[in-house]
Specification:
This protein is mainly alpha-helical. The protein is built from 7 helices and no strands. The protein has one domain. The radius of gyration is 16 Å and the shape is globular. The protein starts with a helix and ends with a helix.
Amino acid sequence: MTFVGKSWGALFLTGFLLGVVSCGNTVDAIDGYLDARDQRAAAFCDCFGPLIDYVDDDGNYGDREFEDCLDGEQLESHQRSCITSMYTTELDYPPDAAFDCLADVEREYAKCIKKLRCDDISGLESCIGAYNFNRNECPRMSANDESNFEKCTRA
């Protein structure tokens, strides 16, 4: 199995590996991250949806399969609301720096993918490697908050 095969699932579910620190408008930071995450998913689906089995019965990838990929990989409004509501209560720490950092990582990953040809698996692996490295450099939240975030993405 290639690096892509092992890592694609992590790409779409790693947003819950969040950090803590800083201050500012938390809801704006969360919205910025969620928007960037959805843009990253769209960039991925634009070319690489077939790698994660968004194809028709004949193995083709067209407009319908692209839309299916978006529906499957972007967060729905109830998931976004769940994530935002996690931070409406008073916290010991605002997660703005983490969300801002992750939003930047998502945007950089989307830019990286958009430069690739759809058959450039080596380039995709390079983008994935940079994404994972940069994401791991972001501040993190507690394991409990990460778990709650993951539950929202699966709701």
